[in-house]
Write a structure and sequence with these properties.
single chain; 99 residues; mainly alpha; Arc Repressor Mutant, subunit A; 6 helices; 65% helix; DNA-binding; AraC_XylS_family_regulators; AraC-like DNA-binding protein; transcription regulation
Length: 99
């Protein structure tokens, strides 16, 4: 879950970091860091639904090394904490995504 650096992304292109970032945003509608966060949170959502691993370990598995950073990212993407979402999934009331 370690994304390539911007330097790696621009290798072999004639784009600057700024141009690559702008082109990515124009193509995908989100910045590169927002995209990475979204992919990590979606993977975490899958793991929360099928795994019994602790929430903190799932955060590490998807690339977060701080529980606070993982919870913040999850809250931004899903509107609930990973712990709350897992609890609702286990009760069969989970609405897993915001928009």
């Amino acid at each position: 879950m370690e994304p390539p650096s911007l330097d790696v992304l621009i290798e072999g292109t004639r784009l600057s970091k700024f141009q690559m970032s702008r082109a990515f945003f124009q193509t995908h509608g989100v910045s590169i860091p927002q995209y990475v966060r979204r992919v990590r949170v979606e993977k975490a959502l899958e793991l929360l639904a099928v795994s019994r691993d602790p929430v903190g370990l799932i955060g590490v598995q998807v690339g977060y090394y701080s529980m606070a950073a993982f919870c913040r990212a999850f809250l931004v993407e899903k509107g609930v904490s990973p712990k709350t979402l897992r609890k609702s999934l286990s009760q069969g009331t989970g609405t897993a995504s915001r928009a």
